[in-house]
Amino acid sequence: MNDSVVVGSRLIGPGQPVFVIAEIGINHNGDVETAKKLIDVAVAAGCDAVKFQKRTPAICVPPEQAGVLRETPWGTMTYLEYKERIEFGHDEYAAIDKHCQLKNILWFASPWDIPSVTFLEEFNVPLHKVASACLTDDDLLLALRAAGKPVIMSTGMSTLSEIDHAVSLLDRSRLILGQATSTYPCKPEELNLRAIESLRERYRVPVGYSGHETGLQTTVASVALGAVFIERHITLDRAMWGTDHAASVEPQGLERLVRDIRTVEAALGDGIKTRYASEESVLLKLRRIP
After folding, report:
1. Rounded Cα distance, 245 and 185, in Å
2. Which terminal CB of the chain, N or C, has fewer other CB atoms within 10 Å?
3. 214 phi-psi bin (left φ>0, alpha ψ -120 to 50, beta other)
4. Which domain, by its residues, includes 257?
5. Taking a C-beta distance cutoff of 8 angstroms, is the pair 20, 268 a contact?
């Protein structure tokens, strides 16, 4: 089994500190200053990395959706125009890269097409993420394998046979899987946290959790079930306009989430039953027969 994967100066795997990812995604709504504020929120909460989504809209938007009209804060526009309006280019990512270096936090993204892989490689990102929607894109997976970076792959809306095939195309020595259910927000009874262990046993790679639920307790529970990374969408305000804000975590919630994750992972211990020094005085007081 591949026990851990090296990402930058970090090891991600069982027995290592949980790698906490704040998913900014497209919650910046096309504004780089909002993106910087979200990066600052992640830093203040103690996250290890922030993640974005990178697309070439002309490639990624389905033809039948491209011309559909949508009401946006910038007026009525086609879905393709909207996607192009909120997509960051080189200048915006250069500003993000500089800000993350200044704040000492890693950043990476989910590339949704091959040109986006090339784009992200120009910034020498430490890893790539395969979005659940892209798990069946063989050409994209092969491009990510050729890039030679660690890959996190989410498994939402995927069957085991689809995951089997996707895993076969990637380098398992650099692969981390993520249990996910692609409903926004997701009901607790569909999170299937026990699949973390099932995926680990089947593919023999580290497995984490990408959550789209409301609330924090189920995400914390995934740590107790062995998740090696946690990813949650973040927002400045869940009432903001956009598709992902409602299932995102606000700044105070993110701080509580990271705090509780660190408490739970400390409480898990090493699994070796022992008598702690702190118990000795209680032993003398309460145990009649030594």
Report:
1. 10
2. C
3. beta
4. 5-286
5. no
The position carrying tokens 């930058």 is 8
**What pLDDT digit, counting tens, does each position of 44-87 carry?**
999 999 999 999 999 999 999 999 999 999 999 999 999 999 99
Amino acid (one-letter) located at 61 = V
Tell me how far apart the 2 most distant CA atoms of the chain are, in Å. 80
**Please, which pLDDT band fits residue 163 given cuts at 50, 70 and 90?**
very high
Q: What CATH number is given to the structural domain containing 134? A: 3.20.20.70
